[in-house]
Amino acid sequence: MSITLHESAPAAIAELSAVFGDGMTASDTGSNFTCTEADIIARVLYLTGQEDAAITWLLGHAEGEDWDDTHAHPYDQEKGDAERRSPRPFNEADIRGHLAAIA
Questions:
Q1: Which of 30, 42, 62, 84 is most enclosed, with most CB atoms within 10 A?
Q2: Are 87 and 75 in contact (CB under 8 A)?
Q3: Is residue 93 very low, low, confident or very high in pLDDT (cuts 50, 70, 90)?
């Protein structure tokens, strides 16, 4: 498949980055996306040079993670997770590594 970018594509990516990379938008809506959907958005942002927006987006998405979701640490009783009521979502360093892996 061949992709031809329109001359307005960089401006459209910048606008997309401004929307999904906004902390309020990411926190308010990010957890409503599935992990796969959130990763697709983050990957597009990351691969087009919008790394900060991709990180912000996934940080917002990760706020709503369950134990078995992609952007949370797995349940580990040895680490005391049994006492936690919710999983430990990815932090910025975790998300940077995740983005590099899905790029």
A1: 42
A2: yes
A3: very high
> Which residues have CB under 8 Å from 21's CB, separation 6+?
45, 50, 52, 53, 54, 56, 57
Chain-centroid distance, C-alpha 48: 15
Rg (CA), the chain: 15
Tokens of 84: 């936690």
> Distances in Å between the alpha carbon of 51 and those of 1, 11, 18, 41, 98?
25, 16, 12, 11, 12
Q: 100, 71, 103, 101: which is closest to 86 by C-alpha?
A: 71
Split at pLDDT 50, 70, 90, the class of 81 is: low
